[in-house]
Amino acid sequence: MNGFLSFVKKEALHILRDPVTMLIALLLPVIEVLLFGFAISTEVNNINIAVVIPHPTETTRKIVTRIESNPYFTLKGSIPENQIDKTLRSGEADAVLVFAKDYDQCVTNMEQGTPVKPFIQIIMDASNTNTATAGAGYLQNILTAGMIKTSIPETHLLFNPQMKSAYNFVPGIMGLIFILICAILTSISIVREKETGTMEVLLVSPVQPIWIILAKMIPYFIISCLNLVSILFLTRYILNVPISGSLAGIIGISLLYLVLALALGLFISTVAKTQVRALLISAMLMFMPMIMFSGMVFPIENMPDVLQIISCIVPARWYIDAIRKLMIEGLPFSEVLHHFLILTSMTILLIGVALKKFKNRLE
User: Fold this and answer.
1) What string of DSSP letters covers 266-330?
2) pTM surpassing 0.90?
């Protein structure tokens, strides 16, 4: 045991003496959480909008006031109807709201149940589909706010009523950070020992090879645990993302994911002979597939069936989905038990394959 602890201390000191590694391991998670939480957002804000009001009334004035006070819109004023195309093409406005000449009478007829023709029109610049879709939805909510409830469905947004993108990105960032810290840095660390020839020196020590490998992993596991604490702190108190579910459940499944990432790093170290190759394998086999197939950015349900099947072998898919259910939706741990079992199976499989390949290379 003393020999094992000595190897752990040796690896920890090696990391501490490398300022670049420490900077990447401890500062990168904070930067990415803050970037995705504040700077990189899928929310649509400051949509420039103009209005066409042939006959202004008190009702239309109230609607325009609601739009002007809405933080998602910037009112560019009223324009004549023949200037709609020019205004949109010039980029002066992203949307134009057109009221019918008899708007008030049409509203009255609708409230009385009389069929009416469309009396208000939303014209959007759809060259940016995200802005167009979001802007049209925002406008429809504003326009229907004062209309009769019998003809308009009432919408309730659960779990994320403000539609903040941080609620979606934080679980994904957690999955990304732990892969970067545990898998990539661990694989590079082990390969570096092989590349410099010091691994053979370590293997002739009285400590068994498996304990040497574990000793190299433990410091990165501890660093990742610190990252987990810092991410949860930033999430709750800086980004104001609620932790609705069990904190113990979030920590438990995160620790399992850390072990899985360490096993993945060990596996990469058995197939890579150089640090550059280990980095390339990590980027190609983990980083890009995780972004594409984990559901972090692109909904898995929208993918073709073949790609949905491929996504099942990406560990981040199950971890990110479980964290969303626990953190955002506030579900009990029993609802993500199958996620936990899948991650456990992947961890056991990776550890078994990685240790077998490592043993074969020693022989």
Assistant:
1) HHHHHH-SSHHHHHHHHIIIIIHHHHHHSSSSS-GGGS-HHHHHHHTT-HHHHHHHHHIIIIIS-
2) no
